[in-house]
From TrEMBL:
A GO CC term attached to the entry: membrane
Record carries keyword Transmembrane helix: yes
Subcellular compartments: Membrane
The protein's name: Sulfate transporter
Keywords: Membrane, Transmembrane, Transmembrane helix
BP terms from Gene Ontology: transmembrane transport
Organism expressing this protein natively: Streptomyces eurocidicus
């Protein structure tokens, strides 16, 4: 009940036939659900990859999607075999939150057009820049206003539904919202766009030789890498969150990465959307009382039955309702409270989050995440390069000082400023470098040069034993 509206909505937002979202959900249940790794994670199409898929389909065409997902799946399997799954836990939380925030903003910007039954002009910046024109066009069209009303009503139900605890226990919010919107559109005969369904078999388009040949292009390889890394990160972060919700077996990260790769390999062969494990479906699975892997396998089976037996039920769903579901999902990806807390407690982390978000919105998902990772690495290097000069005492006209910490090029200006500020009552300065835990080549050269200059102008300068890099 959760997976149907999400799978369909994500497919629409990705610019592909709705059946491909259902195919991915079926593969996530029947294949990934059977493989070892996590016991309770539920896999399927995810909002986190919507922006990247949309851009890939727009640039390379729908036929190339299968080749991209196939290559990403094989790369995930290789990473799992090489036992790289655990390393995804080393990614900065600020980068992850920035990635989700950027995805959320771009997703919302794109779905605001679908909310008004309009076509988005392009990528993140283009969509944001076109919002004033969208507002003007919507206010001047009665049909567009009807669509916006349907979408806004869907969002309102999504926000209010969890507060009705009895109803929320029996019917998930996304399904209730879409069902109510569909009923209202049908009852009032509103002039809004509805999704189009052609059948699962007609939508399946395995990649051809020409599509596979494009995997040698640099741009395509970058997209494959982005698919693999982001899908893997989202799945493994979800696994860590799901493990906190139950007392059952813990996730084997490497096996889970192989399972996700196997699922994406099959999705690629079928030309479907990439799959990941996401916390929304997985948490629903645990809260519903799941005890074994059978729960997530049956989720895939029910999706298959629904798509095969009741395809007509999808054709009555208004596009604006699905846009409302995805706008709500995008909003939940934005960590507003977490950002405020980070700004007060760890301002550097908040800056990394903001830079990652801005880079994703202004460029694309892959380049934005790379910028965020570089920012996090630079921040970590800066914070771990603490170095200071401590004056021990002055005897016989010689100032004895110790240099403590980690001396690398990032803190070299500060180190030289402190050395220049040392008092020189007579014969010079004696430096003790034995307190350094690390000294790189740049600092070694700079300290040697400083010692030589001061030895000539202010008397002898003695240095303690050098510390290796």
């Amino acid at each position: 009940m959760v997976a149907v509206p999400l799978s369909v909505g994500i497919a629409v937002a990705s610019g592909v036939p709705v059946e491909l979202g259902l195919v991915t959900g079926v593969v996530g249940g029947l294949l990934t659900g059977l493989l070892p790794g996590s016991s309770f994670q539920v896999s399927g199409p995810a909002a986190g990859l919507t922006v990247l898929v949309f851009e890939a389909v727009r640039e390379y065409g729908l036929g190339a999607l299968g080749a991209l997902v196939l290559a990403a799946g094989l790369l995930q399997i290789a990473m799992g075999v090489l036992r790289l799954g655990r390393w995804f836990r080393a990614i900065s939380v600020a980068v992850v939150q920035g990635m989700l925030t950027g995805i959320g903003l771009v997703l919302i910007a794109g779905q605001l057009y679908a909310l008004a039954d309009a076509a988005p002009p392009g990528g993140g910046l283009a969509n944001l820049g076109g919002l004033p024109g969208l507002i003007v066009d919507t206010l001047g069209s009665a049909d567009a206003m009807c669509a916006v009303a349907v979408g806004a009503g869907t969002i309102a139900v999504l926000v209010l539904w969890p507060r009705w605890r009895r109803g929320a226990q029996f019917l998930p919010g996304p399904l209730a919202a879409v069902a109510l919107a569909t009923t209202a559109v049908a009852a009032l005969s509103l002039p809004v766009a509805r999704i189009q369904v052609n059948g699962l078999l007609d939508a399946v388009q395995p990649p051809g030789s020409r599509d596979l040949a494009r995997l040698t292009e640099m741009g395509v390889l970058g997209t494959v890498l982005a698919f693999a890394l982001i899908a893997s990160a989202e799945s493994l972060f979800s696994a860590a969150a799901v493990d906190r919700l139950h007392d059952g077996p813990r996730t084997d990260y490497d096996k889970e990465l192989i399972a996700q790769g196997a699922g994406n390999t099959v999705c690629g062969v079928l030309g479907a959307l990439p799959l990941t494990a996401v916390i929304v479906r997985s948490a629903t699975n645990v809260n519903a009382g799941a005890r074994t892997k059978a729960s997530r396998v049956l989720h895939g089976l029910w999706l298959l039955v629904f798509a095969a037996v009741l395809p007509w039920a999808l054709e009555i769903i208004p596009v604006a309702a699905l846009a409302g579901v995805l706008i709500h999902a995008g909003w939940k990806l934005i960590p507003g409270r977490d950002f405020a807390r980070l700004w007060h407690e760890h301002r550097g982390e908040a800056i990394v989050l903001a830079v990652t978000t801005g880079a994703i919105v202004t460029t694309n998902l892959f380049e934005g995440v790379l910028v965020g990772l570089l920012m996090a690495i630079a921040k970590a290097a800066w914070e771990t390069s603490h170095v200071h000069v401590e004056t021990v005492g002055a005897e016989d006209g010689i100032v004895r000082a110790r240099v403590l910490g980690n001396a690398n090029f990032l803190r070299l200006p500060k180190l030289l400023d402190e050395l220049e500020a040392l008092p020189r009552p007579g014969h010079g300065v004696e430096l003790d470098l034995s307190g350094l835990r690390h000294m790189d080549h740049a600092c070694r050269s700079a300290l040697s040069a400083w010692a030589e200059r001061n030895a000539e102008s202010r008397g002898a300068v003695a240095t303690g034993p050098p510390v290796g890099p």
